Amino acid sequence: QCINAEYGLLALKQKYPQYIGDVRGIGLFIGVEFVTSPESRDPNPELAVAIKSGMYRDRVIVSTEGRYNNIVKFKPPMTFDMGNVERFAEVFEKCLVREIKI
Prior knowledge:
By secondary structure, the protein is an alpha+beta fold.
């Protein structure tokens, strides 16, 4: 499950490199760093907060953290299963696409 969650987020990093600067973490404790561009890697807290709010509206709880509040953290409970991993990835991408208006 950890591998699938991280793999899914890494795939999104490859798909949206202009917005996702990094995906890092251990197990299911994963952080996604949002940036304004891949070249400058300047923090994008506005996008991170918008993603967090959108996910909350879709009943998926995440937090924003980091020095610039530009990292969306995912800290699921121990009972998290594969269905939850798939739902998280689906809602995460839906919120990202909605916010970047693709």
